[in-house]
């Protein structure tokens, strides 16, 4: 009976990662939409929602600490709890990047190049897709999917580098220079989101086999 109750606690706190992940994905969706449509109200909502994301991470950590203090888990169970905390922290950081994208997008009055704007949005959607896949891999304990995200991250890195070069090769006015600089910041935030998706994969692998593998 005691083991059954403990397992329920482990499952409950692990389930909170999916709840947090869903909230973070909504933040990313809103940030990408704000970049595309210049919806300032949506952008402000992203900033306002960040406090809830931060609180969710803290609540998860407090729950993990409580379980450790009361149950004193070892081996696999302790590793599982550590992974919950690490993934919560990484997801919270991804939400921070969504806020950063939202804040920077408010400073861009006119996009200097619509083609590059679309390329940036596609990059953001693919980085968000990596977070979705990492969360699914965690829920289904799919180690293969987690490993494959490292290749996706390499592709994002390559596209990021090419996009930056394209941005700064544009013929620009003074107004364009400011917009291009802000777009470069956004591209960097997107690249970092993909990095954090890879971090999530690393924690999935760590939970599965007890060894930390650097996929970045």
UniProtKB/TrEMBL annotation:
This is Phosphate-specific transport system accessory protein PhoU. GO terms for biological process: intracellular phosphate ion homeostasis; negative regulation of phosphate metabolic process; phosphate ion transport. Its main location: cytoplasm. It comes from the Bacteria. Residues 20-103, 121-204 form the PhoU domain. It comes from Shouchella clausii (strain KSM-K16) (Alkalihalobacillus clausii). The keyword Cell inner membrane does not apply. Belongs to the PhoU family.
